Amino acid sequence: MSTLNFALKNQTGSNTVYAYITGQAIDNNNALFLLQADGKTAYYPTSPSATQTALAQDCAIPLGASGSTKTVTIPHIAGGRLWFVRDAKLTFYLNPGPALVEPSSSNPSDANYNLYWDFCEFTWNSSQLYVNITFVDFVSLPIALTLTNTSGTSKSVQGLPSDGLATICTALKTQNSKDSAGWDKLIVTTNGNNLRAVSPNTGITLDNTLFKTYYDSYVDQVWSKYTDTALTVNTQGSAGDVTAKVSNGKLTFSTGSISYDQPSTADIFSNSSGAFAVSGDATKDAITARLAAAFNRSTLLTDTNQPNGETVANYYQDAVTNHYSRICHATTSDNRGYAFPYDDVAPTDGADQSGSVYDPNPQLLTVTVGGASSSNSTNKSVNQGDTTTPSQGTQKKSRFAGLKKVMQKLSRKR
After folding, report:
1. Rounded to 5 degrees, what angle do the CA atoms 121, 340, 124 make?
2. What is this structure's pTM?
């Protein structure tokens, strides 16, 4: 099978919703790919002579009135994104390469900045279809996934309810009233209405004074704890368990010459800078993923075995934690959704946090934008944190840990 159908459902309440599909065409030498407005014709842009060149084809796929479903057909795609925008169209540009200039949630001068848009991510190759919802950059339009395979079995990610953005924004304000850390500054509005809630990493891009020293006290406590106590990290790969202690100011592992300086708050929220920069060493990068996840979830003071000593009930319990991630998970209908780049890290055979579905034999992917008509968050304590173990998703996640970052690299060409 060289093509696959996606069913795109408009549940937004608006009769003007468009979808865009972008990525790299695996069967066409990984050429830059966009799907045209008819939902079936491929568009392979050529390299323009200048930056910020308009697309030569219309790639805005109309979904029809609210309640409608539009079926589109795609080839094998790597680093794919499925974009949705409400009440307008998105603007994409081409740079020489060709490289696609995508809408930005961190550049106020971007043509799309004040529009209501969002996206999910996917890769479909000869091995499987992998799809996830994402809150790594921001939250705006609710997106849900249902993947049905050729045997008729379906897997779902419920995503945010229709009032999810409002719930998240309220919870961010409540958290900020408790610690004055700046969580309310993650809320972006237009004409007095909530437009999106951005992640701390995006927030720092918009305001480099935000969260400067937020994690400092927690990191100091972690370094103190592991001066005398051994930390065990299961790489969930060929290196197995590795142990570490703090020596001469560095968290030093017993395997090879792997060590870490104390990460900054920016390192923790980005998962990719300073102490947590990608090294190219498979074992170190596996350790980095698990350390970064543990810092975002604030489990290093309570669990000396990462990630296998953790339970979902222990996530986000420290006062210093990634409250944006906590709130996003608590607001989704099944507690699942990528809220930081290594949110696919989980205990072996543990509960999925990343909001992903995957199958080697996909038949149909249904993607719903707009969310359920009412929120179940009234039965949760979003402001205090919800620690209910998700009822769905118990697949081993080690083979996907860090896949988010790979997909970002593939799909964010400028």
Report:
1. 20
2. 0.91
